[in-house]
Amino acid sequence: MSADATILAPVRSRPDIRRLSLSIARPLISIGTVFLVWEVAARAGWINAFLFPPPSAIAATLWQELLSGELLQHIGRSLYRLLTGMALAVVFGTLIGIAIGMTAWGRAIFKPLISAFMPVPTLAWTPVLLLLVGINDRTTIIVVFIAAAFEVIYTVVSGIEGMSVRLFWVARSMGASRQQIFWKIILPGIMPYLITGIRLGSGYAWRALIAAEMLAASSYGLGFMIFDASEYMTMEVIYGGILLIAIFGYVIENVIVGRLEAATVEKWGVQVAR
Amino acid sequence: MTPDVAEGSALLKERVTFALFDRAARTVKFLLPIAALLLVWEGAVRAGLAESNILPAPSMVIARAIELLDVTNPAGGMLLTHIATSLYRALSAFAFAVLVAIPLGFLLGLSGTVYRWVSPVISLLLPLPAVAWTPILLVAFGQGDVTIITVCFLGAVFPVLYSTIQGVRSVSRQSVWVVRSMGANFGDIFVRVMLPATLPALMSGLKLGMAHAWRTLVAAEMLAALSSGLGYMIFAARSYMDVPTMFVGIVCLAVIGMLIEHFLFVPLENATTRKWEGAIHVGGRR
User: Fold this and answer.
1) Which ipTM did the prediction report?
2) DSSP letters of A235-246?
3) N or C: which end of chain B has fewer CB within 10 A?
């Protein structure tokens, strides 16, 4: 019946300011309600307060960890691994993507290899990497690289395939060299696609990083923090870590790279359909 | 008449053989780089360029796979058990996810008000890796199937939910109006308009959900499995520096993931979306 109400109701026009303030307030209210109900239920003893510690206790623990400097270490180390792995993925992914998109040998060599490696779950490489490179940052960085690289390659290739051949004709007829074509046409042309690839890739990379940190628990990192806390059964730290992982994941994928994507799409007027 | 037919059939035969030949050539071209990589790898190990106990040659991996597949061997022969356990966990988690996510997705997609209030919570949970719940589940349930299946469920449920919501929300109002103006009740609208229009999104959601369940499974099994499962096999092999077993596990994970997509979802798609292809665009384009 609710379907009738929403789909068939006439479209009401609300004042813009009210709608805007509601769109900001609504997430705060709905997420706040969840935490409030949780808090009350935990305090009143309706749910197991050990397994579901009240949000206020989680916030207090996070605050303490923040003051002691531990939390910043964990966050910093996770972000360092993510950024390094992403940077590698962007550089190599773009190069391989261009090789596939522009050259026959690149397509012949890399396409089969990629379709052979793509179905392997990224995290399955972790134990092999642990033996090959040891328990250190390099293992987690390589996992991040693998998780993000396929997405970058995919979007770069589809970017090149989506480019108009006329661009090349025009450039070449005006006597552009191969280098000029690369820097002036291909690179700007794939940029919007590349940013979409980075956005999707960073989402996968963040997920893989957390799991890799749990498996290759070296010393720091948010994934390590929550897995380590499960051995001491400090539930507040686990929940706090999960909350931070969710917030960082959201901010990285939707706010930082998302804004960048929106800006480039606006600037170059390209809509990347995925 | 007869020569014509004979000529035609000869032409057809030629075309069929050509197509077969073309296909074979493409397959060879596709497999060539992979074979080359394996050969270089094998050669590098044999020549002593790579240490065989860290990076075993493909022939050693194959030998280990045969050893692990041999059911009569009491010490080895565990591979099929591992595969069966992993499949059981991934498929049951996926089934739970579908049972929860599709009804919930329709509810959220159909009601704009509920969607607007719940979507912030979903978008907070969406970027969260399912594996991150493992520590809590480990404390609550300990190691074992419950923890693993729950983690996989969490991995699969959000893609299915998200696609279902998007699919339902993209159903055009006009087609609902048209059917309604012709006197259809809510049940008719649901079965004849909503469901066919949502199916493509639903299918891609299911595919994504199963892929997520399978990918999450590996990590979950590494962290929480007691005795079997492919992820457990790979992770346990690490303690014995048994790299060939790891590679056997990795190949199995990739191949089974591909087989699931090929034999579960391609027929499913053929049976549903292709059948209703005409119905999908009702009101959508015009």
Assistant:
1) 0.79
2) HHHHHHHHHHHH
3) N
